[in-house]
Amino acid sequence: xxxxxxxxxxxxxxxxxxxxxxxxxxxxxxxxxxxxxxxxxxxxxxxxxxxxxxxxxxxxxxxxxxxxxxxxxxxxxxxxxxxxxxxxxxxxxxxxxxxxxxxxxxxxxxxxxxxxxxxxxxxxxxxxxxxxxxxxxxxxxxxxxxxxxxxxxxxxxxxxxxxxxxxxxxxxxxxxxxxxxxxxxxxxxxxxxxxxxxxxxxxxxxxx
Length: 208
Fold this sequence. Notes:
By secondary structure, the chain is of the alpha+beta class. It has one domain (about 1-205): SMI1/KNR4-like (3-Layer(aba) Sandwich). The protein is about 40% helix and about 20% strand. The protein has helices at about 1-20, 20-25, 35-45, 50-55, 85-100, 105-120, 175-190; strands at about 65, 70, 80, 130-135, 140-145, 155-160, 165-170, 190-195, 200-205. The strands form 2 sheets. Strands 3-4-5-6-7 form a 5-stranded antiparallel beta sheet. Strands 1-2-9-8 form a 4-stranded mixed beta sheet. Strand 4 and strand 5 form a beta hairpin.
């Protein structure tokens, strides 16, 4: 699994090297083994092998870097940045402090029913401590790796939570599968890059 995810990641990097190299300039180097172990210690859980391999290869991105007077909006197609491990820990702490308490509020119970009907693979809670935020636009869209799914899901599945419209969507059964879908979509033209207000943005043609 670890070898597969790196193969798909390299396919993605090759596409951007040919088509939009500005995105590559924004990528950080991989995390250290110590940082990965720190994340596992905070979670009190082992990371999926593919996520571990991915974090060791790439640890976040800095999309405020300019390239020919343009900046990028995240290399993956969720209009946000990949998080480094320090950023993952910061985002996780924010969710622990602000979202876990909502699990027990009466107001949230209505939303929980909606989440469960639309995304039954993910537990219908505001936040679970075993959801790992790996990227996104904080406050709007966050991509999570789910280490504590429902009986209908699988450990390591990838889902997106859109806070702006209170919506969840299962994206893939694993990070490896998610990157495979993306690599395939880039090669087939489903995903493409356009300039939007002096920013290079990855878009998804859902019709393909």
